[in-house]
Specification:
Elements lengths: L16 E4 L3 E2 L6 H19 L4 E8 L3 H9 L4 H19 L6 E4 L3 H16 L3 E11 L4 E2 L6 E2 L6 E2 L8 E10 L5 H10 L4 E2 L1 H12 L5 E2 L1 E2 L7 E2 L2 E6 L1 H6 L1 H4 L7 H7 L4 E5 L3 H15 L7 E4 L2 E3 L2 E2 L10 H8 L1 H11 L6 E2 L2 H31 L11 H23 L3 H22 L1 H9 L9 H25 L4 H10 L2 H5 L39
Helix pairs in contact: 2-3, 11-12, 12-15, 13-15, 13-17, 14-15, 14-17, 15-17, 16-17, 17-18
The protein binds 5'-O-[(L-methionyl)-sulphamoyl]adenosine (MSP).
Length: 548
């Protein structure tokens, strides 16, 4: 099941499962929309780590460009001061709070990045891929992108035109700048997409890119000379590099491009670039063309997620719910937060948040189905066996159905989360299994079997057959929870750790992080004799919703 490649016969470094998030603009604090992609990447990489693979997870911040410069000016500080403050006070702390296990955090103002970027563009310049020209056109500072006239929306006056994403007026820019010969790469890109049908997902995103490239590409303006907050072009320091060209290269500079060849061979090409659908063209068209021009391998996949919406619009700085990620985590807890967005919104489609929906899922799926199962099983092992897990000596068809249900859930979750990035489907598969175990307990009625096992009121006059059944039922439920803890660990690591603890699993099986997906469905791993304790309630009853 765990499809790790075996590189043991070669001297090449073991290639990594390398996942990236977009690097976020630090003109503002992180909101629910940013956290959505970062949590998804975290679950994906934790899943692959749980398969025992060599994994690298990168996130970071995009710190150059006009948007950041103007924000800093408006706040009376230098752009660098602004970025330093936001990164340290807002972005890094949020990722830590959300239990994001990134291996690196790249900032585009770091010298490890700017040096490599200069080398990269110099190389393209030397190869004749960059030339000097002029451009004029409508520019959206929000997108940091020239727009095509036919994409714009009408504004308040006849001359005013609005960005279709930001709904704010675009500015007319006229500059002499350097251009990258993007137009030359259209046919090569189309050939590449055809040969690599999984390169862009989901299918809607792939189709959009194909249509766009088929129309023919224009060369890309890659420098600015009207402001200086960017990476200077090494051959003409009056220009700074267009922020997107600098930003895209974060994926290779963080991987050791030009600095650490061995590491670069291990990490590059990236396995998955996670991106929002608004930045798909940059990742699926411009970035691959730049890599082709540089003679570097292309990333294996670009996967676009949908948007979190507010009132039918993309949630953004100017259009927030007024709810910060921490408002939700303080009410529902971090793990429920990580769970909710991935479970509720099919990855790749737009979705919206509501307190009502979150509360309903928290109560029925997390607290009732999952949390109660864990506490009931621990309570019964405590009550009937003094907390020592009994052996299953009388397993039959009902138990086999649980064993089979686990095998199915594990295989399905592995395929859906690990390969298809269908987080909602994969989590649902695990929760179907949790439901199956609940149904099993409801049918087997261990509390009734206990009466025959030990006699009414706990007298000694019990039946051996009853005792064997009771032991078997409780073992089966506890073993099912052992597997559930492993399967949910990538999604809800703190909860899974509590469950692992309450099952006394560490003593015989070792750390939760060392359990692999390949062995999760091997029935009977949790040994009889494990010390089961009640532990904390996994999902406590919610307080009243805070006043909005
Ligand atoms: N800096 C660029 C990315 C450079 S990557 C080389 C950028 N930054 S951003 O901060 O504006 O957006 C970063 C990501 O957040 C994008 O993938 C964008 O789609 C995502 N989101 C921003 N708002 C979002 C929602 N409301 N919902 C889901 N994702 C959203 O673009």
């Amino acid at each position: 099941m765990a499809a790790t490649e075996d590189h043991s016969t070669t001297d090449a470094p073991r290639s990594a499962y390398y996942v990236t998030t977009p690097i976020y603009y630090v003109n503002d604090r992180p909101h629910l929309g940013h956290a959505y992609t970062t949590v998804a990447g975290d679950v994906l990489t934790r899943w692959h780590r749980q398969r025992g693979e060599n994994v690298w997870y990168l996130t970071g911040t995009d710190e150059h460009g006009q948007k950041i410069m103007r924000t800093a000016e408006a706040n009376g500080v230098t752009p660098q001061e602004w970025c330093d403050k936001l990164v340290e006070e807002a972005w890094k702390p949020l990722w830590q709070h959300l239990d994001i296990a990134n291996d690196d955090f790249i900032r585009t103002t770091q010298q490890r990045h700017t040096d490599r970027v200069q080398e990269f563009v110099q190389d393209l310049h030397d190869k004749g891929e960059i030339y000097k020209g002029g451009y004029s056109g409508p520019y959206c500072v929000g997108c940091e992108e020239y727009k095509l006239p036919n994409e714009l929306l009408p504004g308040a006056t006849e001359d005013e035109k609005l960005c279709p994403i930001h709904k704010r007026p675009v500015e007319w820019l006229e500059e002499e700048n350097y251009f990258f010969r993007l137009s030359a790469y259209g046919p090569k890109l189309l050939e590449f997409y055809a040969a690599n049908p999984d390169f862009i997902a989901p299918a809607t995103a792939r189709n959009e890119v194909l249509r766009f490239v088929e129309q023919g590409l224009q060369d890309l303006s890659i420098s600015r000379s009207t402001f200086n907050w960017g990476v200077p072009l090494p051959w003409d320091e009056k220009h700074v590099l267009y922020v997107w060209v600098d930003a895209l290269q974060n994926y290779i500079t963080a991987a050791g491009y030009g600095a650490d060849p061995e590491r670069f061979a291990e990490l590059w090409p990236a396995s998955v670039h996670l991106v929002g659908k608004d930045i798909l063209r940059f990742h699926a068209v411009i970035w691959p063309a730049m890599l082709m021009a540089a003679g570097l391998p292309l990333p294996k996949r670009v996967v676009a997620n949908g948007w979190l919406m507010v009132g039918g619009e993309k949630m953004s700085k100017s259009n927030l719910t007024g709810i910060a990620p921490t408002d939700l985590t303080s009410h529902f807890g971090v793990d429920a937060y990580r769970y909710y967005f991935l479970r509720a919104i099919p990855f790749g489609t737009d979705g919206s948040f509501s307190w009502e929906d979150f509360t309903a899922r928290y109560t029925s799926e997390l607290a009732n189905d999952f949390g109660n199962l864990a506490s009931r099983v621990a309570a019964m092992v405590g009550k009937y066996y003094g907390g020592t897990l009994p052996a299953a000596t009388a397993a039959g068809a009902a138990e086999q159905a649980v064993v089979d249900g686990l095998a199915k859930a594990a295989a399905e979750a592995d395929r859906k989360i690990g390969e298809e990035l269908d987080f909602a489907g994969g989590i649902a598969a695990v929760f179907d299994f949790v439901k199956l175990v609940n149904g099993y307990l409801t049918e087997q009625e261990p509390w009734k079997v206990a009466k025959t096992a030990f006699g009414e009121g706990g007298s000694a006059a019990g039946s051996e057959e009853g005792q064997a059944r009771l032991a078997t039922i409780l073992y089966t439920a506890a073993e099912a929870l052992r597997a559930t803890a492993v399967l949910l660990n990538p999604v809800m690591p703190a909860t899974s750790a509590k469950l692992w603890d309450s099952l006394g699993a560490e003593e015989s099986l070792g750390a939760l992080a060392d359990q692999t997906i390949a062995t999760v469905a091997d029935w009977g791993r949790l040994p009889a004799g494990a010390t089961v304790t009640k532990g904390d309630i996994l999902f406590p009853r919610l307080e009243e919703k805070p006043a909005s």
